[in-house]
Amino acid sequence: MLRDPNIYSRRRPGAFDWSTAVIAAVVGAAAATVYFRDGSARFLAILDSDLFLFGDMLPKVLAGCLIGTFVTLLLPREIVVRWVGSESGFSGLLIATVAGFVLPGGPVTIYPIAVALLAVGADAGAAVAFITSWTLIGYTRALVWELPFFGPDFVLWRILVAIPLPILAGVLARLALRAFAARGRGKP
Fold first, then answer.
1. Three-class SS state of 185
2. Which of 6, 36, 62, 125 makes a 20 to 30 Å CA pair with 53?
3. Please, is 122 exposed, middle or buried when counting C-beta atoms within 10 Å of its C-beta (0-12, 13-18, 19+)?
4. How confident is the model at residue 6, as a pLDDT?
5. What do you get for the CA distance between the two ends of the chain, in Å?
């Protein structure tokens, strides 16, 4: 079976981003609603709280982006393509699942690493398996939050039930991407 190397290429974003425009419109409408409904004091209290949250999150987001950038510089493209690229098959999904399970950190760290892996040569299925694994079976959340509250039996069963899900999500992502690529080339 021949594989198209351009199947995983992404198109460049345009000058105008619709998702940002929609979010800005929703924020503007919500701000206007609060201002006219609850007054300027409440509006300024919410704005102050949001600016504090923004200031608190900004260094974390910058650090996550730096980590993602360093990943692209430190990992050789050939190794990433071989281990979790489009030709890696089922073993690539397993490697991505184990990496998502092992890596600590929050979404501010994990998502930039996933984007960096995509930029270095990983395929979308491996990135989806990586993020899904971190979300469902990441050990840090199990150790810090679940084990103390629910006990070892619950954590063990939850992890055992969730283990196949990142691999399934990766397979589905690969199939969906191939279907979209085939559809774009005019094939049924």
1. coil
2. 36
3. buried
4. 53
5. 17
Token pair of 141 as six digits: 């959340």
pLDDT of residue 100: 95
How far apart are the C-alpha atoms of 158 and 136, rounded to whole Å? 9
Token reading at 130: 């990586």
Alpha carbon distance 163, 141 (integer Å): 15
**Alpha helices, DSSP H, located in 9-123:** 18-38, 40-74, 77-84, 89-102, 107-120
Q: Which residues, 6 or more positions from 180, have their beta carbon under 8 angstroms from its beta carbon?
A: none
CB atoms inside a 10 Å sphere around CB 82:
14
Task: For residue 90, give Cα distances in angstroms to 18, 47, 159, 170.
Answer: 35, 48, 20, 9
- pLDDT, position 162: 95
183, two tokens? 């559809």
d(CA 24, CA 32): 12
Return d(Cα 116, Cα 108) in angstroms, integer.
13
Closest CA to 126 of 156, 96, 105: 96
Return the pLDDT at 11: 64
**Both tokens of residue 51?**
């600016």
pLDDT per 10-residue tile (average), the chain, 188 residues: 50 74 94 96 96 95 91 91 93 96 90 93 96 93 91 94 96 94 72
